[in-house]
Amino acid sequence: MLQKTMGRSFLGKIVMKKQRTMKQLFAGQEAQHIVSLYYYFSYIFLDHPHIARIIELGTSMGAMSLYLGLWGARKSIPVHTFDQDDFVFKKEHNVDDIGAKSAFEKLGIIMHRRNIFADKGQAVVKKLLKGKPVFLFCDNGDKAREFNLFVPHLEPGSVVSVHDWPGEIGPRHVSALVEERGLVPWEKRWWISVGTATWTVPQAQ
């Protein structure tokens, strides 16, 4: 967004200048997460090197997708992101004419335009959760529903994070399933500061 401001030229004449308002961006995409969340996720991947697939529920404007795509490229593992809209590819959320589509393709990010709560969408997500330990990031429109719908299908060794903790989703939404599956909190001391809670699925005894 550009704002007009008054300025004085070297000739002393009053001229109109354009001043840019700084937006929060990551690799050219509008970012909706605080910067410290990127650091937090880095430690998740460093502490869990066995993660074999990354699944993001809620692509939105794509900044986090690009970040996760970089980790996918670094670890040579696939990255899947789900959204029923294509905000990420709309010009107003990109700072240049290249846009996110080219970056998604180069990083190998697989974009699924699906409603994850519809039968077909659920089936695709659940299939991706099977067979390997994954990192699942719940950041779609109904995080409590996502957590309770998909976490039961996670394999041992998987990691699940939910954004907007403890606002949109909190202990009352997850405690029953956390206890049922014996999920282990990961670095709980950071949850409030990054607005994101994380659990690991224990390995079978």
Concise summary:
This protein has 205 residues and is an alpha/beta fold. It is 34% helix and 24% strand. The strands form three sheets. Strands 7-6-5-8-9-11-10 form a seven-stranded mixed beta sheet, sandwiched between helices. Strands 1-2 form a two-stranded antiparallel ribbon. It has a two-stranded antiparallel ribbon with strand order 3-4.
Features:
seven-stranded mixed beta sheet, 34% helix, 7 helices, two-stranded antiparallel ribbon, 24% strand, 205 residues, single chain, alpha/beta
The radius of gyration over CA amounts to 20 Å
What is the global morphology? globular
Helix fraction?
25-40%
Number of strands: 11
State the major sheet: 7 strands, mixed
Unreliable stretches covering 5 or more consecutive residues: 1-12
Strand content range: 15-25%
Order of helices and strands: EEEEHEHEHEHEHEHEHE
Structure class:
alpha/beta
Query: Quick check: average pLDDT?
Result: 88
Tell me the number of helical segments per DSSP (H or I, 4 or more residues long). 7
Strand order of the largest sheet: 7-6-5-8-9-11-10
Task: Give the N-to-C terminal Cα separation.
Answer: 55 Å
